Sequence to fold (499 residues):
Amino acid sequence: MQTGLTPAPIDWVLLMPLLIVFGTGVVGMCIEMLRPRSNNNAIVATTLLGLAAAAAYLIGTWEYPTIHTFGELFLSDRVAKILQLLIIAITFTTVLYSEGYLRERRLPFGEYYPLLVWSATGAMIMATSTNLLIVFLGLEVLSISLYILAGLSNREQQSQEAALKYFLLGAFASAFLLYGISLLYGATGTTQMEDLRAIWNTPLDKPTVGLLYAGLTLILVGFAFKVALVPFHMWTPDVYQGAPTSVTGFMAAAAKVGAFAALVRFLDYATPMSDAWVPMLSALAILTMTVGNLVALVQKDVKRILAYSSIAHAGYVLVAVVAYGVLSREGSAAQPVSVVYYLIAYSFMTVGAFAVVSLATRGGRERTELNDLNGLWERAPLPAAMMIVFMASLAGIPLTAGFLGKLLIFRDALDAGLVVLAIALAVNSVISAYYYLRIVLATVVQKPALHAPRFANPNAGLVATCLVCGLAIFALFFAAQPVLRELEAPQEVFVHRGP
Fold:
C-alpha cells in the first residue's frame, strides 16, 4: 500500500518564463546589496537581460501544446502566452526609461527594479492560473510590490499618502476577493475554476445557490477595485498622482492586464451564471466609462487626467468582457479577441504617455500640471511627437491601435446584442477626445512661462521607450492580422499527468 503524498507532475517548460522573471528580481536584489549607492547600471542591465531572456524563451516555446500542469493549477494557452509576453514588454519598456527618471528625481534606489520585476511576476501568475487561490497569491505578489513602489519618494508627503491609500484600499479589495473565494469553496468544495463550471451545471439546492451568487458578487467586487471600476475607483486619481511617474505608468498597464486576465478566465468558467453577472458588469461598464471621461474633463493635473482616462478605458475593456461572455454563452466566441487586443494597445499607449510625462521632472521635483508641459515640443521634439500619437490612440483616432481596438469592441457588442453598451462606448470615445486634445495643445502649441524651469533631459532609454510604444501602436493597426489570427486560433487543452 502506497503511503505519503504524491507530488504533482510539473512541466517546467511552461513555468520557466515565470521562474526567469522571478529569478531576475532575486539576482537584481543581490546586486543591489553590493553595488555603489550612486550606480544602478548593473541592476538595470541584469533586469533588461532577464526580461529579454524570459520573452525569448516564451517565443521559443510558442507552439508548445496548450496544457494544464502543476496539479492543474496553471494553464498555458495562447492567450496566457500573449498576456505574459505583454507584461514582460510593459516591464521592459518601463525599466528602459526609469533610471534617467529616478536620477532626476534623486531616487537612487536599486530595489526599485527587483520590486518592479516581482510585481510583473504576480501579474504573470494571474494571467496563467486556473485556481482562485493561486490567482489571489499572484494578486498579492503584484500588489505588495506596488504598495512599496508607490511610496518610493519618501521625502514627499504626496507619495506617502498615495502608498497608504493604495495599501488600505488594496487590502480592502483583497479581503472582498478572498471572502468571495471562501464562499465558493464552502458551496462547492473546490477553488479550481474548471470544477466550478461543472458544479454550476448540476442541480443545486437554494442555500448552495445563495452561497454561489454571494461568492461571485464578492469576487467581482474585488476585481472591480483592482481594475478601478466605478464606484470602486476612488483610490486611482490620488495614487496615480502621488506615485512616481514610472511606477504610475507600470501600475496603470501591468496591474490592469493581470487583473483583467484573471477576471476573463474566471468569467469564462462562470458562463453558467452569466444571467447574474452580465447585467451587473454592463451597468458597471456604462458607469465607469461615463464617470471616468466626465471627471477627466475638469482635471488640471496631467496624471489625474490620465488616471480618469485609465478608469474610462477599464470601462471599454469591460464592454469587451461582457460581449465575450454573452457570445460564449451562445457558443459563437472561441477566444476573447477584442479584450486581449485592446489590453495590448492600451498598455503601449499608456506606458508611452507616462514616459513622456516623466520629462516634467525638474530639479528633483515632479510638476505635472497641464501648463508644466508647455514648451515640451521645443525642448524634446521626438517625445512630444510621440505624445501626439499616444493621445490620438487613446482617443481612438483612425490609423492607430486604439481605433482598431475600439472598433473590435464595438463590433462584438453589436454581435452580442448589447446595443446600449455600443452606443455608450461611441459617445464616451467622442467625449474623451476633448481632454486628450488639451494635453496635445499643452505639449505642442502652448509656450512656457518666461522663467519656467527646464525639462529633464530625454535620455536614450526614454527615447527608446517612446519609439517602441509608438511603433507598436502603428504596427498593431497596420499589421493586426497576425495578432488577431494568433488570438482566434482554436486550441485543444491537455492535462499533464506526469512522465
